[in-house]
């Protein structure tokens, strides 16, 4: 994988065809959206949103940010994701996490919230097996499968966008902020995609993931170092900072403004570039711009793509690789919940 800096964008507040068409004309390489089953507000569910994004884009990579995997029956979601990957021309990526901020979701689908980490580990392992295309039998703590073969949807003749999907299925980008998520990324993931994390904290997470990979004999060649960044970019830096304070103040109002400033860059293109450069310097290579504003999100993404991205530069010494061994073999590992 080439060592370069790329930008993605979060399709907030909901995927919208015109917005996605405009973003595809920008130097943006990916679009992302999450979603809950029982959110406290009227927002969409993640697989539904992913389906809309695959249908309304042609070029960019499309991903979940994030899929709360323990809420889903793995055979069902494996089929859904494989079909969307095939119909989109192999453009799907799966940002995955354990959730937990809405306990009612877990109770409503019969999943004990204390099991969410272990269920996520086992589900990721099972999805990997199903996406290989071979007959699968799996007998774990939470899931039992006997002699099943998952076949993605066959693209209709003449559909230029559709293929058989990515060999082995879409990549897993593990999200989170705590040590179990880092261990999950090192053992089971194809990349690391945390959120609300300062550059210093990201640097520590890189060390943790590298150490865990080395301990398990996993080679992280091709591993994706990503960051989901809430931010606002405006010509008027004061407006951008007001955007972030308003957007994150309700959800993260317990955090002082100085902390929000460390984890949610805001300002002019020059100011935001300086802040994002700190992430690049500690190893981030794919930055997902999540507009931290309630209005005109396209302006934030456009300024980021056209005036922030060109200002970022790779450090002279890239982060050292870790470990050795096979990512496929590591996919059978287990991470503490």
TrEMBL record:
Residues forming coiled coils: none
Disordered: annotated segments: 315-337
Low complexity bias spans: 322-337
UniProt keywords, alphabetically: Oxidoreductase
Domain of life of the organism encoding this protein: Bacteria
GO molecular function: oxidoreductase activity, acting on paired donors, with incorporation or reduction of molecular oxygen
Pfam families assigned to the protein according to its UniProt record, in alphabetical order: Bac_luciferase
InterPro entries: F420-G6PD/mer, Luciferase-like_dom, Luciferase-like_sf
Protein name: LLM class F420-dependent oxidoreductase
Organism whose genome encodes this protein: Pseudofrankia asymbiotica
